[in-house]
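Record type: monomer structure entry
Structure origin: computed from sequence
Chain ID: A
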Amino acid sequence: MDPVPYCPDDVVNSASLLERGLTSHDIARLCRAGTLHPLVRGWFATRPLRDQVDRHLLSARALTRHFDGRAVPSHHSRLLALGLPVWRADLAVVHLTRVHDRGSRKREGFTVHPAIDGLDVVRSTSAEGVPAAVAIVQTGILNGPMDALIAADGALHLGLVDESDIVAALVLFAGRTGVAPVRAALAHADGRHESPGETRLAAVLRDLGVRTTPQVWIPTRQGAKRVDALLDEHPVVLEFDGAVKYRSPAGSRRPDDPAGNPLFEEKEREDAIRDEHFEVVRVVWRQLGDPGGIHRRILDAIARCTRRSA
């Protein structure tokens, strides 16, 4: 008989293992052998952990079973389960919110927050948790306004929330410490931003007073090309570069074959945009911490446009 019972959700607790006849020494041996993988106290994964996010999600699943309807995933734990981006979240800590009582608890690996008046939790066969908009506000209060804005843009883009959901969630936290800057940040939520980098770049541009429109289509000789942002008053394109967009499957092409090479295709795309008399300013993640540098590059691009049209 397999010492570890089949678990369709990939988590098991020590009580179930003890009921099956295992001892604490047996459980420790299975952990050493890589059959079980410790999560939070008394709970184990029955398969290898892929990464920090996987560990966090499995821990949240285990704790949801442990609290058996009394508390549900919230904050960034809920956002991760919904496939939404998080930025500065501490993935070593799972966050849950109580359904009814006001008690709180903080233990190694998890924090349980008091119930929220007027909150209706989401219960389904696939997942339980606070509504997405509520988790967005919670993670903003916990991790910072930009974290809330990044998650809100992602949720709006995927159609998981609308503006009225965000407004209603903010009402639930009226008067709470830290909600004012979150409310101010969420006033700029925009589902046209397709990545955390685009959200942060838009915030930098707002602070600089640079007005742009996200996700604009530009007609070119290669057909219409969509750009991350376009200055409202000048033909200057802004593109946020994430390394992932330049990865291609190993072995998908010959090294000397430009077809299917993301770098080559991106250069062709940018050349087609420039041929329509647009300047292109590319920004990478590390440059977001230097707003002055971004501003200088934008001003230089505007100057080039002005000289060309003179």
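Annotation 1: Confidence is low (pLDDT under 50) at residues 244-258.
Annotation 2: The two ends are 83 Å apart (CA to CA).
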